[in-house]
Amino acid sequence: MLIAGQVFHPERASDHLEWGWVRLEGGTITQVGKGPAPAKPDLGDDDHCIFPGFLDAHVHLPQFDSIGVAGLELLDWLEQVIFPAEARWEDPAFASDMAERATASLISFGTTGFAAYGSVHSESVREAFASIAARGVRAWFGPALMDRHAPADLCRDADRQIEALASFEPMGRVQPAVTPRFAVSCTPDLLAKAGALACAKNWPIQTHLAETRAELELIREMFDEQPYTEVYDQFGLLTPRSVLGHGIWLSEAERALLARRMSVVAHCPTANRFLEAGAMDRAGLSSAGVRLALGSDVAGGPDRSMVRVARAMIETARARGDIAPTPAQAFRQITLGNAEALGWAKSGRLAPGCEADLVIIRPTIPLHEHPDPLGALLYAWDDRWIEQVIVAGSIEYDHRR
Ligand SMILES: [Zn+2]
Predict the structure, then answer these.
(1) I need a labelling partner for 385 at 20 to 30 A (CA). Which of 47, 178, 292, 304 fits?
(2) Which residues line ion ligand 1, judged by CB < 5 Å?
(3) What is the pLDDT of residue 193?
(4) Is domain 54-342 annotated with CATH 3.10.580.10?
């Protein structure tokens, strides 16, 4: 398959689109060129743009039907909105259908890879895991581990949860992830077992860290005044393959610890705004040497489009008075930046040998004379521009269908 258009290359220092073409064979990009395509393209032409598939580093699939309940603080929102929604995943058929629906929805917004949380129900998450794998996306996915501070029907015995998770296997491009929801809903015993399992299997870890002040208070009470980040560290949960959602309320010492462990903080600006959790200090974390990713955090975040999440990242930095990322850096974050954070070496860019995950758009605003085409795309972004989304070489979304 040959695709032509203005190509975005996040690995290059240039912040411009480059007229060119991309050739795919099977699930792989085999050739990339500059200038006119060597033959009649199958998709795209000079008024199209080609991006690497967008990547979402933090999202909750069981929460896709709960977008839009505003006005609650995180802990109340979990109790009143999210736990009842996640309880429905007790039914494996429901979970499998919903995972399929959520994955299709993400693909339609240009997302071809994500790190996602399931519910606590291991068997339902196993079914959902297969649904995600069937769509071809690259993903981390695992049951949200919980054994306290949640309704009784959403708490599980620590040993049983860990044993069930240990029997997961990678499938397609989906990798099991050790996913303790957050230290509030996990006993030290469960956290220790989660850390040990991740170490034994060399699996990635995802959890939440320092999202709201009320959560910090609770952690201080529950863990004897220990700093939040150290709680995870003592159980072996801070590794180079750990992605911690939010990281808003962190001390200098905690930032330094995250940097030493080479763990990743997933900034979720749309969720932070929606739940009024605070404005994450992205520039400060970055200068402390903390690796960063970007996530939608649906349903804490109402936006499924990573382009809108990237725009919110810029707006959050501006509102704080920090030096804000440029539109080119924002598009880089949701492609190559997130790929690097998640350790996906063949994702996030359009180069020979990379996985064939692409978004083809046809913007309705003229870019040729525009002084900042990527700025135009970011701020005027319209999901109706998306013509095709290609996942592992196959057209998984087509606007004509
Ligand atoms: Zn989250």
Answers:
(1) 292
(2) 245, 297
(3) 98
(4) no
